[in-house]
Each structure stands twice: as C-alpha cells, then as structure tokens.
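Purpose: get a first structural picture of the assembly so the mutagenesis plan has something to point at.
Setup: two entries, given in the order below. No constraints added.
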Amino acid sequence: MPKKKEKKLTTAANSLPGPDDITRRELPNGVVVLARENFTSPSVVVDADLRVGALWHGREQAGLSDFTAASLMRGTARHSFAEIYEQIESVGASLSVSGGTHTSGFYGKSLAEDLDLILGLAADALRRPTFPPEQVERLRGEILTRLNIQANDTRSRASEAFYELAYPGHPYSIEEDGYPETIRALTREDLIRFHGTHYGPRGMLVTVVGAVSAEAAVDLVAKHFGDWTNPAQGDLPALPEISRPTAIVKRHVAMAGKAQSDVLLGVPGPARRHPRFLAARLANNILGVFGMGGRIGHEVREKNGLAYYAGSALNGGLGPGAWYAYAGVGSANVDRAVDLIRRELKRFLTRRVTAAELEDNQAQFIGRLPLTMETNEGVASNISSMELFGLGLDYLRRYPDLIRALTRDDLLSVAQEYLSVDGYALAVAGPE
Amino acid sequence: MKTNGIYKTKFKNGLTVVLKEVHVAPVISWWVWYRVGSRHERSGTTGISHWVEHMMFKGTKKFPGNTADREIARDGGFRNAMTWIDWTAYFETMPAATIDYALRLEADRMRAALFPPKEVESERTVIISERQMYENEPTFRLSEEVQNAAFRVHPYHHEVIGDLADLHSMTRADLVAHYHHYYAPNNAIVVAVGDFDRRALLARLKTLFGEHAAVERPALAPRPEPAQKGERRVTISDEGETAYVTFAYHAPAATDPDFYPMVALDSILAGASSFNMFGGGGTSNKSSRLYQALVQTGLAAGVSGTLTPTVDPYLYSVFATVRAGQTLEAVEAALDAEIDRMRREPVSADELRKAVKQAKALFAYGAESVTNQGFWLGFTEVLQDYTWFENYLPRLEAVTVADIQRVAQKYLARTSRTVGHVRPAQPA
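Result (structure tokens, whole complex):
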C-alpha cells in the first residue's frame, strides 16, 4: 500500500501534462502527433482535428461539411459500412468522424491493443472514402429526420434564432447541420468534391493518450497517415469581421404543444486565442457558472424559482464564439427571467466583482485542474486545445499564474468590452 | 471484509461503508447513497424523493444556505445528486486534500437539513419547471405513458419527477417526514474511492457518522406487479413531424440469474450499453440486429435498447425513431420480426462472443475515473452488494446461447408487453 510520502508524488503541479511528458512530432506531410502515456487503465483515446469545416462552404450548401464527414465511415476502398462497424464494435471500441465549423475530426476509444485497428479504419475513412450511393441516400434520410427532431426542440430553435440575430451575415449564423432544402439538394458529387478539395494532412493534429508508449503511438499515426498527401488541399478561409449588436434585437419562435420556453441572450465573444479570453472566462464563471449557475443562476433559479436551469456560457473556439446567458422557463415567466438577467448584466457592467468572488473563482479554476486530468479523455482534450489554439505545451503549467494575475479591474473591463444591456441578441423559443 | 482492494464494513448504527484506495491522481470521489426513490412513493406524494434531494442543497444549521456550493466550487471539486427509481445518491469529487469538508457536509445533512419554508416554495416552481423541460420532449411523454401502462400496481408506475398534481399539492410537512424516515445511517451506504489512507478515513467516518442513531423503519414492500395478461397500447400525439415506436417488456430484477442472459440478448439485438450513468465510453450499435433490420433498410433513423439493473423487476425496452417518410406500422412490423426471430432461433456463438468482449471493454471504460468507480460500488450495494459488480463479467461469460433463447421466450412475449407510439399531427 502506498505511503503518505509516496502519494505526494502525484500532487497537481507535477502531474499536469507539459513539454517534458508530452511527445510532439511533426510528420513530413504536416501532420502533428501528440502523445502522452498513461498505463493506469487498459484503454487509449485518440482525438484528431483536420482543418476543414462549415466555413469552407456557403449558406446555399449548408450542411455539406457535416454530411461529408458523416459519409466517410459509410464505406471505403477497403471495407463496406457493415465491415467497418463489425470490426469496431466487435472489440467494444468506438470511432466517429464529425464535422464542425472550423475543424472536423475523428474521435476513438478502444482497449490499447486495438489502437492500430482504430487508426487504420480512421485513415481509410479520411483518405479512401467511396461514398456508396445507397449509403449517401440513407444518411440523407437520417439527417432529414434529425432536422425534424430539432425543429421540434425548443433549445435548438432558440439557438438557431440566436445565431441569426447575433451574427448577421456571418458564417456562424448558418446551421452546421444544414436545412431541409439544402440537405435535399446536395448531391453525392458535392460530397466527393468537398472531400477531395479540403481533406488533407496539412494542419492535421492527432492526439493519443493512454496505455500505449508514446513512440508506438507516433509510429502508428505515421504508419496510417504519414504518406497522405493532397496537393488540392486549399487554404484556410478568412473569417469576416464581426460587428457586435448596437441595439437589442429580439425574436420569438412560437412552438405549439410545448410546456416551457428556452431563452438565449448574448453577443459574439472573444476567440480562445484572444489575449483577454481568460479574463472573460473567469468573468463568465462569476456571472453564470460558479456554484449553481453563478449570479444569474442564483437570481433566476435559487431566489425566484423561475427555472430549472439558468446561467451563462462563453464558447471561445478558433473564432469569436458566443457569450450568452440562458434559461429554461415557463412561458408566463419569460419576461421576468429576461428582466432578472438584464439586471444582473447591468450590475456586472457597473461594479467590479467582489474580492471574495474573484478569489473563489480563481481558486476553482486552479483547484479543478487535477480533476480534469483524471481520465485519458480529459488529458487528450487539454493537449489538443493547447496545440490547436497555439497556447504552448507548457500552458497548463503556466495556467495557475495566469489565473492568479487577473484582477477585478480586468474582469470589469473585459465584460464592458463585450457585454451590454443596450446591444444584444435575444431569442426565445416556446409556447405562443 | 476486503477483496480486490475494496474494503467493506458496517457501523453499529447500520451504516454501510465501502472504501477503495486508488492512488492514480490526487482526487477522491465520495458518495452517499440512500435506499429511497420513486419505488418508495405512493399516489399523492409522487416525486417526493426527488424534491427532498433538491432540498438537501438548501442548507443545514452548520452549512447554511448555499455555502457548500461555494466551498466545493472554490476547492475545485464538483458535486451533484441523482434520484432514481430505487435510490437517491449524492457525490462530491474533490482534490484529495480538501475532502474533509465534503465528509462533514454529508454527515450533517443526513439528519440536519432545514427545509426552510420559503425555499420549499421556491423549489416547487423549480421542479415544476424541470418537469416542463421534460414535457417539451415527446419521447419523455411517451416513456411516461408506457411506464404508467406497464405498471398498474407497483410504484415503478410513475416517473421519478412525480405527477404535476402532486408537485402542486405536497407540503413541507410531507417532505420533512419523508426525509426523517429514509435519511438515516441504517438506510444509507457511503462510498469513497481515491487517494486516501483507508484507516485514517475510516476513523474520520466513525467520528462523523457514528453519532447518528439508527431509525426504526417499517419494512417496506412495494406492492408486486401482477403478471400482465395481454398487450397494452398507448399513443401520444405530438405537434412535431417525427414518429417514434417503443416496445416495453417486463424484465428480471438485477439479482435474478436471468438478468445476465438478458444483458447478452440486449447487446446482440440492440447494441452493447454501459450501466454506468457516467458512461466512460461505449461503442456504437451499427452491427446490431435491430440497426441492420431497421436503419440499414431505411425504415428508421435510429434504434436502441434499454435494460436497467433494478431492485424489483422493471422493463426491457426497444425504441425506434421512424425515418421521415416511413410509417409507424412498417417499423413496428420490422421490430416484431426481429424479436420473433430472437425467440424462434438461437443466436450464433460468434454473436455471443462479441457481446462478452463488448461488455469487457465497456466495463473497463466504466471503471476509469474515481467518480465512475464510486458510482459502481454504491449502485451495486443498493441492488445487492458490491460483489454484483465484481461478479458481473464472470456471470456474463457463463451465459449460453440456449440461455438467451430461453429468456427471449420467457420475457419477450407480445402478451406481456406495452407498445407505445408517438404519432405526429403532421407526419413528415
């Protein structure tokens, strides 16, 4: 049984992933491999990002990137759809390819002995998809059904309206999943063309964490992706400038047969790489996360009993993700909930947070690091983020100091830079 | 008692203690489980166990208001609570050095929750709002109706959230009485998994929990559900465009030897799934029989199966999302054909081997974090004891193809099932 003294070896500061225990290797074709070993459980996760997503097409082809990503596992030059999933599921593993806005990628988890299989199938899907016509049509039907389900979901409808209001004319206002009319119009040739011109190794990032030696992980990624080339792979599209709302823009989406409404109120926020992102994240934590939904949760849920969930969120990401407050409330209480959120916003923009709030939230950000690193999934996600957002592999080690350096003035000024009670998007979806 | 690193004991006041040292990360997951859930509720106070759970976050004299939220958050921990049909559980997963606060908090709120009258009323509307959130989903309304139809007598009849009428009429006195009756050391299990010294923690728990006296509890025996003699059908109308169909069959309890062949059956029919509510990773179900027969043929957009380990016999259900342009009737006929095949023909040895390998992988994933392990140990203590968890894989490995056919014939009969439909007002 380990003694107290030995236990000290696992304290947070030196168990955080850093440059000395993350292996980083750049393959000649541009693929970056990151690996960290963990032999405490028999599994391994692999998390990969490619520089392709919904930004690479316009509104008229909405859903193309997602549809393409979802098609990749439906048949390859080496395996049929049935063979692919028989292999994955027979060993209790998982592998999925998904499309996003700035990136697409794959995510897999398996017992360590099956990593070669998972990476092999992922490489097949990304590099040699065949888009079997009957599978494309089956998938189209599944996507249309999913769009129907979302059209009947208050959260999805509120979110769709919110992004249209907060990001007018910007790619973020386009539904990544597409719309029934665009999904019906996309052809198999569109998918093939999109894959051929945008999927490639440049900018690709593969993170492997688990019960595999780092060298073996790098070798396996190199085996499956090292000889991938695509001269047609295009450059990153430029993101248009964002203009924040200067007035209050509102929309109510009336939905029959619903018991309560979803409310979203917010603005475009800072990107993850923005120098003030951490200040904004800490501010948001006080506004709508800490404890049971921060100040907003306290007012809307705890004090007034208006909602089961209420709080705020800051998305970050490669572009200016949204910063917004949310609540799910009975339709009779929508106006009251919005008033309470506005009141909290106003207070947040007028007075600095208290010294105790700052200290509590700083302590939480630093204290929870060991918990987020407990699983392979958590470690992989942190390592991928450090690389994807260019934070440096020593970022987690520097993080406590970065958090401690933030002041009450920093939080007030970043809130004032982004949030306002006179300019925001407000979307409500629920009963008429 | 100590096996495989798991130490179990019972204090004089009846409190069950299960501890497992894991020194992988400086983290401890700490749980308190009460043997109370919707299974222990009667008509008129349905939803009371869940409401009591909410009130446990409203403070005690020593931990007033939401001070615990603040303390735990600032220590970097996370906490939550869950109410289910058989149990209510509370957990805090904390950096190891700060665990003592959570131990003191749970010891105190086992007996000293205040139920401030104003908070009871405020929480009434929060819970009604929670129920409305569920009601927004046609699939919730479907499963509620199916449960109501499948259980006429047993309290598994109603949803954990409770009926709206009861949420309006229950009083503070009802809540307090329920709390005092069920929140006691002899109705509780505490579990800790993580970076601690077992002897030191045990001594601390004795100090903190030893002072609570056992309460006298009348033996509670929920009214058993009589055998179902004929298919029941329920239909929900919905304003959306999507149709859904589900079949719910009465299933064996977790301690019934038939439970294990049912796990293998579910895995082959609808895909492998983990019982751990915190997941930890799973596998897809695209090579399962139902996916092949329903989704690959273009009838359904998705399909799943649900088997739940429970104290009393509960339900095994299969569920399909009808693909836009297809009909409920066609999907129902395809489901019927696959279930009939399960009853008529033995599965192949390969299918069974695959089910066992899947279960092993999912089991490994489900035990990766201390929070997952804490869940398993407490959950299985409620069902039986932690050996249920330890024996799960060997028992599954012992299942034969004949066992699977036998349980299919025994449980998956049309006469003992409830069929549920969500029928859209304007089908796509």
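The first helix of chain A runs from residue 4 to 7.
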